[in-house]
C-alpha cells in the first residue's frame, strides 16, 4: 500500500481547537470560570488559553456571549484538494433538519454538494458496538469500562485522572473506523490512494483536534474536518433541489442513536450502565470513580456536550430539539444493526493502534522534590487568599492564582486583586 501523505490544512494555532478574537473579547471571565481544566486566564482585559490544558470541550465557545471564541475546522474550499472525496456524516447531523423523514435525503444532498461517496459514521458505530460487546466479555479491560467515543473525555482522563486510563475502551472512534473502512474499500476498487480525501463533518472542536492529531491511531485516517454548521447551510438548498433520492443509508437505529446521550450504552445491551452528559456531570462521575465508587457498574458512557453529540458547539440546532428528532428517526429505522461478521472483521480490526499518552500538564516540576517544595509554597500562598474564587485576579480560583505565582505565570509579588480593593 502506498504511503499516505498527511496534509494538515489548519495552522498550528488553529490546531488548538479554539481560537480567540481579541477584538470581541471583553474580559468578562465567564469562560475562565467554567473551563473544566482551568486552562483560561484573563490578563490585560483579554482571555488567553493554556492550550496544553485544553480538552476541546467547547464550553468556552458555548458560554461566550460576545462570540469571541471560535472553534477551529477546515474550510469548505478544501473540497478541491482531492479528486475522489468521501464524506463521513455523523449521526448528530440528521437532528439539525426540521421535518426530516428520510435520512437518504441528507446523504443524497451531500453527493449533490460535490462528494463522490458517503459512508455513515453511524454504520461504523454499529461495528464498534459489536466489538465492544466482545471486548466486554473477553477483552480484560478494567470495569467499569469507560467509553472513548468522546475525545474531550479521553483528553480529560489522560490529563487529570491517570488512574482511570486502564478503564478506557480501547476501540477506534466510529469516525476513525468509518474512515479506515471507506478508504480501504475505495483503494480495493482501484482508486489511487493519493486521489482519496476523507472528510468528516464534525459537531465539536474536540473531534477536530482528535482527528487531526490521530487519537489512538498511527496516522490520521481523516484528511479534512468540516463543521456541521457549514454543511447545514449548504445542505438545506441542495436537499430542496433534489429530484431523485437514491437509497444510500445502511445504518440502523442503533448507529443513529449514538448521536444522543445513552445511545452507545443502550447499544451494548448491558444492564448495569451509566450515561452522563455535560462536562460538569462527567467530572462528577470521574471523581466518584477515582474515589473507588461505581464498582457495580459495567459500562460508563460520558459525553462532554449536553445531550451528547447533538449538543456540540458546531451544530446549529438546540440540542434538546435535535435529540428529539434523532429519537424519532431512530424509531423509524427498522433494519437490523450491522455486525462485524457482515464485513469479515473481528474486534482486533477496530482496536486502537496505540494507547493515548498520559499528559502531566498539572505537574509543578519534573523534579519530585522541587514539585513538593512548590506545592508547599502554593499551600502557604493559598492560606493568605480570601478563598472566594472571584476571578478578579485573572485566574479561575484562588488555588489557580497561587499556582500561577509559584510557576511564574504572573510576576512574583503580585497581590490578590480582591484584597487590594479592600
From TrEMBL:
<feature type="domain" description="4Fe-4S ferredoxin-type">
    <location>
        <begin position="16"/>
        <end position="45"/>
    </location>
</feature>
<dbReference type="InterPro" id="IPR017900">
    <property type="entry name" value="4Fe4S_Fe_S_CS"/>
</dbReference>
<dbReference type="InterPro" id="IPR007202">
    <property type="entry name" value="4Fe-4S_dom"/>
</dbReference>
<dbReference type="Pfam" id="PF04060">
    <property type="entry name" value="FeS"/>
</dbReference>
<dbReference type="GO" id="GO:0046872">
    <property type="term" value="F:metal ion binding"/>
</dbReference>
<dbReference type="Pfam" id="PF13237">
    <property type="entry name" value="Fer4_10"/>
</dbReference>
<feature type="domain" description="4Fe-4S ferredoxin-type">
    <location>
        <begin position="46"/>
        <end position="74"/>
    </location>
</feature>
<keyword id="KW-0004">4Fe-4S</keyword>
<dbReference type="InterPro" id="IPR050395">
    <property type="entry name" value="4Fe4S_Ferredoxin_RnfB"/>
</dbReference>
<dbReference type="GO" id="GO:0051539">
    <property type="term" value="F:4 iron, 4 sulfur cluster binding"/>
</dbReference>
<dbReference type="Pfam" id="PF02906">
    <property type="entry name" value="Fe_hyd_lg_C"/>
</dbReference>
<dbReference type="InterPro" id="IPR017896">
    <property type="entry name" value="4Fe4S_Fe-S-bd"/>
</dbReference>
<dbReference type="InterPro" id="IPR009016">
    <property type="entry name" value="Fe_hydrogenase"/>
</dbReference>
<feature type="domain" description="4Fe-4S">
    <location>
        <begin position="370"/>
        <end position="422"/>
    </location>
</feature>
<dbReference type="InterPro" id="IPR004108">
    <property type="entry name" value="Fe_hydrogenase_lsu_C"/>
</dbReference>
<keyword id="KW-0479">Metal-binding</keyword>
<keyword id="KW-0408">Iron</keyword>
<keyword id="KW-0411">Iron-sulfur</keyword>
<protein>
    <submittedName>
        <fullName>4Fe-4S binding protein</fullName>
    </submittedName>
</protein>
Amino acid at each position: 500500500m502506498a504511503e499516505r501523505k498527511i496534509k494538515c490544512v489548519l495552522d498550528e494555532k488553529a490546531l488548538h481547537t479554539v481560537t480567540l478574537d481579541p477584538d470581541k473579547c471583553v474580559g468578562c471571565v465567564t469562560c475562565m470560570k467554567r473551563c473544566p481544566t482551568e486552562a483560561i486566564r484573563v490578563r490585560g482585559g483579554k482571555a488567553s488559553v493554556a492550550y496544553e490544558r485544553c480538552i476541546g470541550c467547547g464550553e468556552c465557545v458555548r458560554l461566550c456571549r460576545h462570540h469571541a471564541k471560535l472553534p477551529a475546522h477546515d474550510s469548505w474550499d478544501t473540497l478541491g484538494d482531492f479528486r475522489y472525496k468521501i464524506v463521513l456524516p455523523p449521526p448528530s447531523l440528521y437532528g439539525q433538519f426540521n421535518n426530516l423523514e428520510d435520512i437518504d435525503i441528507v446523504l443524497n444532498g451531500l453527493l449533490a454538494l460535490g462528494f463522490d461517496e458517503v459512508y455513515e459514521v453511524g454504520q461504523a458505530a454499529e461495528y464498534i458496538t459489536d466489538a465492544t460487546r466482545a471486548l466486554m466479555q473477553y477483552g480484560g479491560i478494567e470495569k467499569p469500562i469507560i467509553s472513548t467515543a468522546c475525545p474531550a473525555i479521553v483528553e480529560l482522563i489522560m490529563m487529570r485522572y491517570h488512574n482511570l486510563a486502564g478503564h478506557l475502551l480501547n476501540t477506534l472512534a466510529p469516525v476513525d473506523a468509518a474512515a479506515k473502512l471507506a478508504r480501504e474499500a475505495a483503494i480495493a476498487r482501484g482508486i489511487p490512494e493519493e486521489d482519496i480525501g476523507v472528510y468528516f463533518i464534525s459537531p465539536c472542536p474536540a473531534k477536530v483536534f482528535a482527528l487531526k492529531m490521530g487519537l489512538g491511531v498511527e496516522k490520521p485516517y481523516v484528511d479534512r474536518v468540516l463543521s456541521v454548521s457549514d454543511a447545514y447551510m449548504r445542505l438545506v438548498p441542495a436537499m430542496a433541489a433534489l429530484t431523485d433520492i437514491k437509497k444510500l443509508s445502511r445504518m440502523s437505529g442503533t448507529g443513529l442513536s449514538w448521536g444522543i446521550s445513552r445511545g452507545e450504552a443502550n447499544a451494548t445491551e448491558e444492564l448495569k450502565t451509566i450515561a452522563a452528559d455535560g462536562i460538569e456531570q462527567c467530572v462528577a462521575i470521574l471523581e466518584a470513580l477515582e474515589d473507588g465508587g461505581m464498582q457495580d457498574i459495567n459500562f460508563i458512557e460520558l459525553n462532554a456536550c449536553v445531550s451528547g453529540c447533538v449538543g456540540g458547539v458546531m451544530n446549529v440546532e438546540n440540542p434538546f430539539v435535535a435529540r428529539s428528532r434523532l429519537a424519532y428517526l431512530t424509531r423509524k429505522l427498522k433494519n437490523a444493526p450491522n455486525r462485524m461478521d457482515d464485513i469479515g472483521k473481528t474486534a482486533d480490526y477496530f482496536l486502537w493502534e496505540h494507547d493515548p499518552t498520559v499528559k502531566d500538564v498539572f505537574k509543578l516540576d519534573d523534579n519530585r522534590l522541587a514539585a513538593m517544595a512548590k506545592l508547599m509554597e502554593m499551600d502557604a500562598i493559598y492560606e493568605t487568599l480570601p478563598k472566594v474564587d472571584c476571578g478578579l485576579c485573572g485566574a479561575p480560583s484562588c488555588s489557580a492564582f497561587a499556582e500561577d505565582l509559584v510557576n511564574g505565570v504572573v510576576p512574583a509579588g503580585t497581590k490578590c486583586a480582591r484584597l487590594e480593593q479592600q
